[in-house]
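Please, structure for the following, as tokens.
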Amino acid sequence: MTEPKPAPPPGRVGRRLKGAEAIVKTLEALNVEVIFGIPGGAILPTYDPLGASKIRHILVRHEQGAGHAATGYAASSGRVGVCLATSGPGATNLITALADANIDSAPVLAITGQVGAKAIGTDAFQEADIVGATMPLTKHSFLVKEAGEIARAISAAYHIAHTGRPGPVLVDITKSAQAELTDWTWPAKMDLPGYKPVTKPHVKQVRLAAAALRQAKRPVILAGGGIIRAGREARRSLVELVDRSGAPVVITLMGAGAIDDSHPSNLGMGGMHGTVPAVAALQGADLIVAIGSRFDDRLTGDLATFAPRAKLVHADIDPAEVGKNLPVDIPIVGDARHVLAELAELAGAWEPRPDYRRWWDHLNRLRRDYPPGYGQPSDGRLAPQHVIERLSALAPADAIFAAGVGQHQMWAQQFLDISGGRKLLNSGGLGTMGYAAPAAMGAQVANPGKQVWAVDGDGCFQMTGHELVTCALNGIPIKVALINNSSLGMVRQWQTLYYGQRYSNTDLQTGDDTAMIPDFVKLAEAYGCVGLRCGRVDQVDQVIKRAMAVTDQPVLIDFQVSRDAQVWPMIAGGASNDTIEYARGLAPAFEVEEF
């Protein structure tokens, strides 16, 4: 994780400061450039000096939007995203976003106001124990009751957020501490004796992993989100390892971009909606070298039947993840950047090179027999996969995409051509509907020179789409590709497949030609954005180009897609990965040959 160095220490300030001023000065010293937030009573003292600060504050419309924007800022840039909220409901509205950032390892600093120190525990107006509420959902949470502790707590939180396994840290500061006078000095003293993340892997373990890879007949390198978080050098070393070893690569959802989609050794995503070759490779492997992956249930399916023939190398910066879900033969604790660099160096010295030709023959047959694809809708509406394919083809090569959660998320992963890291942002672990629009907003703020798209569904968008107002008022020109199937699409797909087509409460009525509620084009215009609609295949390219030509306003395109389109391949939740279906009723035969 690359983070800008703090500004040179200015030393002791010549006058005493209020705690609120100390908050702002500490953030300035940490080179924080942007804060997403909403003022309220318990944080109001801090908004007074913040108004005169060089830090840009973006006034969001809901605290959840502030948290997801901070996450999008962090995930797209590698820098710490910062959000600010008041006590009580302001702080609790951040919880979903903080839980999301935590499971997906995004470095976020959340600062919340709290009632006065003497009022804590009295059920005062807008009091909530946000430290207690968030401790299980963050890397750490601090409660600050004295102004003299502000600089230390914020600087420690910032440090914790972006070192080791990145994640969110919350600092809750009482209103009384914000009002007190204190002597502010920088750099603040940090005493974190229990926090010593391991970044350098044990040399012996890496050598064992390299030897296992060289000896394997059916290896797979599993590239997880930890490689994205580790930065460009980690991705470069992964490509070197793959090219030198000749082993195939399977990515996780959060690992999208760890190696280019176009790389010949990339089999695609594994798991519930992964490609047939990727799932087959994991199931048939005799060795899996996993870097920065949690082995979550969406990847593994039934743990008892996952990769039954494989020896497992598991490398992760978080020791709690290694061996958590699966027994590990060669555990490695360390930053993916260092692990991959050492593995690539060892592989470069191999003579002779491993011979994986029979393994590749098997996998390439699966590639040939089960390519990515989709059918054309029979209802005359757009195929959502086609929309995303064309968006990928027409958008600039350095465009950033933030996906919502559901069918459109899986289609985005399957049909966007991702080259390079930090270009496809996802709510992977928590699966948070409403993530895309505010995350795209944060990514656009962090990357003002790039085109940023939110690939969202009509269900997801209605949860946080009001942040388009924030974008319009603050000159943040994100673009929203709304994959509008008038349904909670993924839920509807499950109802189709497993609940006898009993569609209970999944019809959103957003795509009815006679009464679209809401009319997303009119809604976008009411929000101060450009609204476009596309319902014909011959209009798709033209509408995308029109949206890309707008550079000074947010744009929303309402793509009217078929509600009967489904995501394939698919493995039923909790089932064995051996039961993957390429399409409904079509189960591929990918039995592993004897080698």
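Confidence is low (pLDDT under 50) at residues 8-14. DSSP finds 23 helices and 20 strands in the chain.
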